[in-house]
Design a protein that fits this description.
The complex is a heterodimer of chains A (464) and B (344). Chain A contains 20 helices and no strands. With 464 residues, chain A is mainly α. Chain A folds into 2 domains: 163 residues, no CATH class; 223 residues, no CATH class. Chain B has 15 helices and 9 strands. In chain B, the strands form 3 sheets. Chain B has a 5-stranded parallel β-sheet. A two-stranded parallel ribbon of chain B has the order 4-6. In chain B, α4 packs parallel to α11 and α11 runs parallel beside α12. Chain B is globular, with a radius of gyration of 24 Å. The chains are: A mainly alpha (464), B alpha/beta (344). At the A-B interface, α1, α9 and α20 of A face α1 and α7 of B.
Chain lengths: 464, 344
């Protein structure tokens, strides 16, 4: 059940009404049952796997606390639980290639809730958080339907206290949530889904596309990916707000980043910060003796792991490797960048640096999006300004009407994000007179209903 | 504390529900009107597909096929773009074996993908695919994707898409101001004016038994005679009498689709013909494209009438540059079903 499917809308409305009409513990039951239905609707096995992993993590957390005072080795418990989680994730990720059975499905959301489980166990192991004793609370932390499919990856200290004190959302929070959902729908339905079929077609048949079409597809794909994933995140955060829950932000205007280092602080923040805290920092403590080389090695290992998390294949390794190498290079060339910035002026430098960052990311995404390594290499080798027949083909088959609609939506989202960096635009709208406010709401609703591409229910990050 | 907060919570919730419903009210009204009127004739089944609204040809064609599927099964399918209007099913049936029943399953600006999907849907429906006539031009050959939007989207039974998503396309089209406002004007006044986009001012434009076109321009030609073309000289520019080849349209993706179509037709032992429309502008299909078509479908089944020839010379055969008359269509049928052509 996707966020933009009629089934989800019905389930969500039902859950929302029930949640606000019940009191106390019943609210948890409502959310837990809804999450179970949401996951089990895809496949009952997915629910079973998610429940098993949650129970394993819950019991491992309790065991960690139990053995600690008795001075028994908590390390054994921690590493065993971690190994189980990683083995489970690796097993499902590679099941198809290991068994050759194409019908084996990768359980939806597995990567995300496994990461949450690892975060929880590590926090308990580091004694940063106490083990959760209330099973329903812990299950909700793991399975909450708004963030189950593609995150945000929540830390126990952020989400568990909210779950413990579930309360209905305030009026402001509910309306703010609705506005975020609307922004998410614009990103997803008007930008991402209008671009997706055309970009997919090029990546599916790279050998038949012209050089100019390949360039165009490579340049547009980061926009599609951002609109798709940040659209999903906005909808998830907005939905959670309708229940009085605050999920972590996942994007912070990534395309304004002047370096890839900065980019990863703004892109998929819950994953990149997870990787930083639970992989990169422990790695640097191991490689500390090697100085700068140790940091470089840790960075590269971290980003390669990040690449592999996205999928099986050398193309994902290269995708991660590019990020790692560029960040290492950037760390060693800070002074050069500062000099250039001083010479040409910071506004121009900022613009050029943002373009450079975008291009590097777009280039690395060729490996991310291509079907396999051969296709990625072919794609890169044939990037050129050559066309098959004429320049019109760089529209990738997108009609003029859709180009205009998507272009305007992209511009509106750009303006929205520009202002959001300075002030909370959504709160500013609330301060406007009712006529202005409602006109904006109607215009937004009209934009989505009239120009949204409702054909697809998939989000790109569902596959991870 | 609990006693104090609960009434406040309820009040907040009620306020939120009230405001959202108030906000949604205009949308509910529009949706109710849509459900009641079914302007695109896609929510319910109809025996006669006449409407004052421009309908989705893919849906209408498929419904007409389904309406007669059980009583008088169709076994001959006229596929392709809007130029299929020049090939009345009754005329085509004259060239087919006895007992053949033809239906026109066309689409405006139809591409190869849609043709393949329709044939696959017929196959799934276990229709006897005895005869197929495909009316194409360069644009249809080049187009490998299925267009979206209410006038092009295919029924879910053909495309395999989620039926809800398909229906949503029509609802979306209904709420677009360029449709909704003229439609409301028409609904209140009962009149269609030429400025009303997506409305059909011509009355009956199809035969609901086999989806044959009833072109209002034919009536105009009958009434106006030679004056029809005299008055529309701008629509019929002079041709420069030099052979001009169109750019290539068939590359690997197109070839793959064409091969899939040919494989399906061969699997059903279908008697098929592929006709490239006589283009008023006399641009000839690229020889490489023609060669590919002949290789895939067999030389004897591909008929290219583009370029300079006796059919494209006479402007009396055309309604406008893009569409030609059944007068020409019948001549082309005679040409492609000539006994010597068949034995060649």
């Amino acid at each position: 059940m996707s966020f933009i499917s009629p089934e989800f809308i019905c389930l969500f409305i039902f859950c929302f009404l029930l949640y606000h009409l019940t009191r106390g513990k019943s609210r948890k039951t409502v959310l837990l049952v809804t999450s179970g239905v949401f996951i089990g609707y895809f496949h009952w096995e997915f629910l079973l796997i998610a429940l098993s992993i949650s129970l394993l993590t819950y019991n491992a957390g309790l065991l960690l606390e139990k053995v600690r005072p008795k001075n028994k080795s908590t390390q054994t418990v921690y590493w065993t639980a971690l190994a189980c989680l990683l083995l489970c994730w690796t097993g499902f990720r590679h099941a198809e290639s290991l068994t050759g059975n194409a019908s084996l499905l990768f359980p939806l959301g597995l990567s995300f809730y496994t990461f949450q489980a690892i975060a929880y166990l590590t926090e308990v192991y580091w004694e940063e958080t106490p083990a959760e004793r209330n099973l329903p609370d812990f299950l909700l932390y793991m399975l909450l339907f708004m963030k189950f499919l593609s995150g945000p990856i929540e830390r126990p200290n952020d989400l568990l206290p909210q779950i413990k004190k579930l309360h209905p959302a305030s009026y402001d929070m509910m309306t703010y949530g609705l506005k975020l959902i609307a922004i998410g729908l614009i990103k997803k339905l008007i930008i991402a889904d209008h671009l997706a079929p055309h970009i997919d077609e090029i990546f599916q048949a790279v050998h038949t596309a012209s050089g100019a079409q390949l360039i165009m597809a490579a340049l547009l794909y980061p926009i599609e990916l951002y609109a798709d994933f940040s659209g999903y995140t906005d909808i998830a955060i907005g939905c959670a707000m309708l229940f009085g829950l605050r999920l972590s932000p996942n994007f912070e205007r990534p395309f304004t980043a002047q370096t890839i280092t900065d980019f990863w602080r703004r892109w998929h923040i819950s994953l990149s910060s997870w990787v930083r805290d639970y992989l990169y920092l422990p790695l640097t403590s191991v490689t500390r003796r090697l100085g700068q080389t140790g940091i470089a090695i840790s960075l590269i290992i971290t980003f390669v792991a990040l690449g592999i998390w996205h999928g099986v294949g050398w193309n994902f390794v290269i995708y991660g490797l590019i990020q790692g190498i560029v960040i290492v290079w950037e760390q060693n060339t800070t002074s050069i960048r500062k000099t250039i910035s001083r010479r040409i002026g910071s506004p121009l430098y900022g613009l050029l640096a943002a373009i450079r960052t975008y291009l590097i990311f777009a280039f690395s995404l060729i490996f991310f999006k291509a079907k396999n390594m051969d296709d990625a290499v072919y794609f890169i080798r044939h990037l050129s300004f050559q066309t098959h027949s004429n320049w019109k083909e760089i529209d990738l088959g997108i009609s003029d009407h859709i180009c205009i609609v998507t272009g305007i939506a992209l511009l509106l989202i750009g303006i929205y994000e520009y202002f959001m960096a300075r002030t909370d635009l959504l709160r500013q709208i609330e301060k406007q007179p009712a006529v202005v406010r409602w006109s904006i709401y109607y215009l937004t609703a009209f934009l989505i209903l009239a120009y949204g591409q409702f054909g697809s229910e998939n989000f790109i990050y569902l596959q991870f | 504390m609990n006693m104090l907060t609960q009434p406040t919570e309820r009040k907040t919730f009620r306020q939120f529900l009230w405001k959202t419903q108030l906000f949604m009210l205009p949308f509910w009204i529009v949706i109710a009107l849509y459900l009641y009127d079914d302007p695109f004739m896609v929510l319910r089944n109809y025996k006669i597909y006449d409407s004052d609204v421009t309908l989705n040809e893919g849906h209408v064609g498929w419904q007409i096929y389904k309406n007669r599927r059980d009583s008088l099964p169709f076994n001959s399918f006229l596929l392709g773009n809007s130029c299929t209007m020049a090939f009345p099913c009754q005329e085509w049936e004259k060239f087919l074996p006895q007992g053949s029943h033809a239906v026109r399953l066309f689409g405006n600006a139809e591409g190869m993908k849609a043709i393949l999907l329709k044939l696959q849907a017929l196959e799934r429906d276990q229709a006897p695919i005895r005869n197929v006539l495909m009316i194409l031009n360069r644009a249809s050959l080049a187009k490998t994707y299925q267009s979206s939007g209410f006038s092009h989207i295919l029924p879910s039974e053909i495309s395999g898409e989620n039926p809800f998503s398909v229906q949503l396309e029509f609802l979306q089209a209904f709420i677009l101001p360029e449709f909704l406002f003229p439609y409301l004007q028409y609904r209140l006044g009962g009149q269609i004016t030429p400025s009303m986009k997506y409305m059909n001012p011509y009355g009956r434009v199809r035969n609901s038994l086999n989806n044959d076109a009833i072109n209002p321009r034919e009536r105009m030609i009958e009434q106006e005679g030679e004056a029809y073309w005299e008055k529309r000289k701008k629509e019929f520019p002079e041709r420069n009498k030099e052979t001009v080849f169109a750019e290539r349209a068939v590359f690997l993706p197109q070839e793959n689709l064409l091969t899939e179509i040919a494989t399906l037709l061969k699997r059903h032992h279908t008697a098929y013909r592929l006709l490239i429309s006589p283009d008023y502008n006399q641009k000839q299909l690229h020889p490489a494209d023609k060669a590919t078509l002949e290789e895939i479908f067999g030389r004897e089944n591909v008929f290219d009438f583009s370029g300079i020839n006796r059919y494209t010379e006479d402007y009396h055969f055309y309604y406008e540059q893009g569409h030609y008359r059944p007068l020409l269509g019948i001549e082309l049928l005679q040409e492609i079903y000539r006994p010597e052509k068949i034995t060649e």
